[in-house]
Amino acid sequence: MSEGEPEFGGELRRLRSAAGLSLRGLAARVHYSKGYLSKIETGSKRATIDVAHRCDQILGVEGELLRLLLNTKLDSILITRLVTHSYRD
């Protein structure tokens, strides 16, 4: 399993393409490297809150990416706590 959030990366790619932006074009607008954004899109790197927020602004998607990122992180935390508590009992 990759260390990033595949759902986030796929959605970022879909939204970027729908906006008619190349990876290079989005990178220039959000001030992150093309390589870093590519790794996020493929799931090999995790997106940060700042990346999600900047991409939301440029792509005009009203916080969609930030919500996806935060829900993924929250789900991961909740699952970890649930599993941890299940094995303690």
Give a brief outline of the structure:
By secondary structure, this protein is an all-alpha fold.
Topology:
Elements: H1 6-18, H2 23-30, H3 34-42, H4 49-59, H5 64-88
Strand content: under 5%
The total number of structural domains is: 1
Count of DSSP strands: 0
List unreliable stretches of 5+ residues.
Answer: none
Q: Describe the global form.
A: elongated
Distance between the termini: 28 Å
CATH topology grouping: 434 Repressor (Amino-terminal Domain)
Coarse structural class: mainly alpha
What value does the average pLDDT take?
A: 86
CATH class: Mainly Alpha
- Name the CATH architecture: Orthogonal Bundle
Q: C-alpha Rg, in Å?
A: 15 Å
CATH homologous superfamily title = lambda repressor-like DNA-binding domains
Provide the helix percentage: over 70%
Query: What pattern of helices and strands is seen along the backbone?
Result: HHHHH
Describe this structure in words.
By secondary structure, the chain is mainly α. It has one domain (6-88): 434 Repressor (Amino-terminal Domain) (Orthogonal Bundle), CATH 1.10.260.40. The protein has helices spanning 6-18, 23-30, 34-42, 49-59, 64-88. Helix 4 packs antiparallel against helix 5 (64-88). The two termini are 28 Å apart. The model has no long low-confidence stretch (mean pLDDT 86).
Descriptors:
mainly alpha; elongated; 74% helix; 89 residues; 434 Repressor (Amino-terminal Domain)
